[in-house]
Amino acid sequence: MAQQNSNIVWHETTITKENRQELKGHKSAILWFTGLSGSGKSTLANAVEKRLYEDGLSSYVLDGDNVRHGLNKGLGFSDEDRKENIRRIGEVAKLFVDAGVLTLTAFISPFKEDRDGVRNIVESGEFIEVYVKCSLEECENRDPKGLYKKARNGEIPEFTGISSPYEEPENPELIIESDKLTIEQSVDAVINYLKEKSILK
């Protein structure tokens, strides 16, 4: 990892995060959707954003596959690359929070240390870990991208849940059991949490 250049100095902006939040009429935070492939992270993140959009609120979804097409194009799936993938996403999500935007991220993010690393770079209450819990069996049954089948056939090395570990969140802010709840119920649970925490009015 490159060392920070001592000539680089952080510049405070004239307009603060609080100014931007006031303008938008709500607080900003990272909604970090984590779970196995096929658990419904992206589906839920996009459904929550649709609800936020319909309510006139500022939001943006950072999706795992989409980010790997650009910002993280050069990263693979080794443990080291997975960590760097999440570190970069965390930094981008932090910028969105500073811009006053409700930021929804949909990444497997299998390692607790990496998720905690993102939690630690934002202020208390700004990182909301949403564990999209779904049994491995159900994720394999869904297998929307055909990845589990390939992993079982040895075509994909280091596949989370099969040949690479997934560390379940120990104390997530929210657990959404996507194999038991409808998408509407899941969205309601997320929105209700944001209202309870006064992120939304």
| Count of all domains | 1
**Broad shape:** globular
Biggest sheet, in brief? 5 strands, parallel
Low-confidence stretches: none
What helical percentage do the residues reach?
40-55%
Brief write-up:
The protein is α/β, with parallel strands linked by helices and 201 residues long. The protein has 8 helices and 5 strands, in the order αβαβααβαβααβα. The protein has a single domain, classed as Rossmann fold (3-Layer(aba) Sandwich), CATH 3.40.50.
Provide structural commentary:
This protein is an alpha/beta fold and 201 residues long. The protein has a single domain, classed as Rossmann fold. The chain has helices at residues 17-24, 41-54, 64-67, 79-98, 112-119, 136-142, 147-152, 183-196; strands at 30-34, 59-63, 102-106, 127-133, 174-177. The protein has a 5-stranded parallel sheet with strand order 2-3-1-4-5, sandwiched between helices. Helix 4 runs parallel beside helix 5 (112-119). The protein is globular. It starts with 16 loop residues before the first helix and ends in a 5-residue tail after the last helix.
Q: What would the keywords be for this entry?
A:
alpha/beta, 201 residues, 5 strands, Rossmann fold
SSE map:
Elements: H1 17-24, E1 30-34, H2 41-54, E2 59-63, H3 64-67, H4 79-98, E3 102-106, H5 112-119, E4 127-133, H6 136-142, H7 147-152, E5 174-177, H8 183-196
Parallel strand pairs: 1-3, 1-4, 2-3, 4-5
Helix pairs in contact: 2-8, 4-5
